[in-house]
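Q&A FORM
Asked by: J.P.
Topic: structure of Lipase family protein

PROVIDED:
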Amino acid sequence: MPAPTAFDHQATGYSLTLAYWMARASDLAYKDEAAIDIQAKQWGFDRVRHHRTGFTPPFPLEDTQAFTVASDGLVLTAFRGTEPREIRDWLSDADATRVPGPDGTGFVHHGFAKALDSVYGTVRDAIAEFRTAGQSVLFTGHSLGGALAVLAGARLYLEEPNLRADGVYTFGQPRTCDQRLAEAYNQGFADRTYRFVNNNDIVPHLPPEPEFAHVDSPRYLDSRGRLHESMSLWSRLADHLRGLRADAFDEIHDHPIRTYIAALETNFG
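REPLIED BY: S.T.
REPLY: Here is the structure written out as tokens.
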């Protein structure tokens, strides 16, 4: 079965098909607004809202970008990520300090919190405006965008449960918060968050433990692109070595969103 060509606006829960479309939406978040408008219409979304905010020093990234699209069946927000070299530098700098999390629960990476704060109000307002018929609400993002998708889901869940998202799909997401917030998040979202990790992608291993933790639930793409909902530690170690033997720079080459999309596509064959 080839990769799907039509966006399913009624899809809920977890499926390979929905994961594929969320990866495509995460990729689209890197494009300019005109390209997003055109693609959203082709996918069947009739409403689009763009979110973009600039920063001042010492924040090391120029801005945060996201878009929200809506149809009669779905409201989707996709957050833009960043390039591997940039996020490695970012995650190792002073902005990796922690600040209180949503509703005062646990702690989150300071840079992630600041990035989300800059667009959260417009994202929240767009969801409230577009969700006119009880549509499903999904968040997605790659790299930095994945961290923002998780934090947006956490804020709605902990601060405005009436707007709680129905699903969060992330790709190559860094660790985002401490263990306390991760546990609180998992209580409401472990069965609706799907965190994809591609073989040796370095970004999901940053920032370091134990200060930062991952939320559930991981999905692993192995060195051959096969998707696993669970994988033993030894199997993962063997697969890491297999990937590194094939490509000495696998930790970087496994991170781009197009690599995730290509791997997901192999699972439709």
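FOLLOW-UP: The CA atoms of residues 187 and 195 lie 16 Å apart.
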